[in-house]
Amino acid sequence: MRIRPIQPDELLAFAGAATHSEHVGAVHDYVSDLLMNGSMRTEWCYVAESRGRAIGRAAFWTLPKMSHPLDLVFLDVPWETEGAYEIGVNLLQELFRIARLLDVNELGYVMDSPGQWPQWQFHEGQRAALLESQGFRVNRVVDRFEFHTGEAKLPSFDERGLVFRSLIEVGEEAFKAALIRVSEGSLDRRTSVKRQQLGPEAKAHDTFDLLKSMEYDPAWWELAFTTDDRLAGLVMPTRVPSWLHRGCSGDAGEGIRRGSPCTWYGDIAQDWRVTRTWGYRRRQQAHGESLPERWISAICDAT
Fold this sequence. Notes:
The protein is built from nine helices and eleven strands. By secondary structure, it is α+β, with helices and mostly antiparallel strands. The chain has two domains: 2-147 and 276-283, Gcn5-related N-acetyltransferase (GNAT) (Aminopeptidase), CATH 3.40.630; 159-271, Aminopeptidase (3-Layer(aba) Sandwich), CATH 3.40.630. The strands form two sheets. The chain has a seven-stranded mixed beta sheet. A four-stranded antiparallel beta sheet has the order 7-8-9-10, with helices on both faces.
């Protein structure tokens, strides 16, 4: 078996490696979008070959304005065949080696359940077992809500209960202060650990800078205040390739009884499609070093 980076004219072969035929076109289009956006590079896309045929694939992913990989994406092997695990191990080990050459200390992987666009990650149990055997640990489990226009009606909202002010109106420092406030006591394990490691102010600055590195409009980002000018919460949506997502939202406590943006999610959750997403992280080891004892800790994102 040979593992190699693809050439620019091999995108379709990459998309088709270990992919159901009905999904190849969608995967190809999404890979093309990520390459155009700067989240992937052709030389970051790898295939596992046997007898000249691509039997597996994986790629590095990053945020558009960053130069080093953050996550692995498009990991697929022929899960229904007997040798799938061995192919997956060899593929991951080669990408770990490349990551070390790129001075990448940690890699993530996100798995959606059920399998769906854009990566169609089926065979969840086998996929999880492969990842965990190679040193990944689950550091986050979230329920993601997806709303489709026309499928559900938003609940009524008394606009007099809250006053919204955009980033243009209040400035960056007000948003960073709000991030400090809403991250306090967060039930999101990743947020709470980072806040403890970096400190509340540094964590807020880190979150703000990360969201600014994505595509956004300052008018989208808003702080919500009660009518007596107390912070109620914030919303900071961003756009990633091909869709708009929440980015960051938080409740400062004052808005819970007043219809804050965050409580809307619970009000209309029954009309949204829910996806459970598993976030894995793997800390890179020096060559030849044994992996630490693996552990799994999962908690629902309840910020």
